[in-house]
From TrEMBL:
Organism: Flavobacterium rhizosphaerae
Key words, A-Z: Membrane, Transmembrane, Transmembrane helix
Keyword Zinc-finger in annotation: no
InterPro entries named in the record: Phage_holin_4_2 (IPR007165)
PANTHER family: SLR0284 PROTEIN (PTHR37309:SF1)
One family name in Pfam for this protein: Phage_holin_4_2
TM annotation in the entry: 28-46, 53-77, 89-107
Superkingdom, natural source: Bacteria
Protein name (database record): Phage holin family protein
């Protein structure tokens, strides 16, 4: 159930970001659902491989290279999904930053708060 909620919120964020961010376009809500699914799959299967392969660069930049990996993941999604377009690397970087921030905010707000004794 939590996965479906995450996909739903990611879909909503993709649609909203496409509306407000120039250089990012999504054709429909259905396309945004596909984008959310593909981003999730790329983050599960491809991102760990990219992180491993670029570990020296990530260590030298104190983890900032992970932002580049996130932008590459967004550009891969752009390449894989028809109807989702990101103009350039910098828009992909900004898109990934804002999307990650929104997802973490929703994750933090939806956490179960333990009852205080």
């Amino acid at each position: 159930m939590k996965v479906l909620i995450n996909i739903f919120f990611t879909t909503v964020f993709v649609v909203l970001l496409a509306q407000f961010m120039p250089g990012v376009r999504v054709d429909s809500f259905y396309t945004a659902v596909i984008v959310a699914l593909v981003l999730g799959l790329l983050n599960i299967f491809i991102k760990p491989l990219l992180v491993f392969l670029t570990l020296p660069a990530t260590l030298i930049t104190f983890g900032l290279f992970l932002l580049v990996i996130n932008a590459v993941i967004v550009l891969m999604c752009d390449w894989l999904v028809d109807g989702f377009d990101v103009v350039d690397f910098w828009r992909a970087l900004l898109f990934s930053l804002v999307l990650s921030f929104c997802q973490s905010l929703v994750s933090k707000l939806s956490e179960d708060n333990p009852k205080k004794k």
